[in-house]
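name: query_chain
kind: protein
chains: 1
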Amino acid sequence: MRPARLLCAWPRPGVPLPVSGVYLIMKPNKILKDLILEVVNNQISSGDPPETKATYYRLLKDGIKEQEAKRLIACVVASELFDVMKSQRPYDHDRYTKALNRLPELPWD
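structure:
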């Protein structure tokens, strides 16, 4: 299971997550969660990249509540961070944008 997927278990702490046929009850990392949400909030307020803000408003228009829309976007941010660290390659704006466009489907679904 990807670490980004585990991070995105919040805001539902204590919810079992399947990990290789076993269920893991994870305690979310509050510091990391807060930092990634700060990235999301900054992207929305600054409009940079514009796709984040557009995705946020699209999700709200589709009836998703504000907190859940930000959580979904944060999952994409976390997934992109994981991919950058794992592959040792630079940030891929096209991959990030495609993942945002697929929301509410998550990058690993």
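note: The two ends are 12 Å apart (CA to CA).
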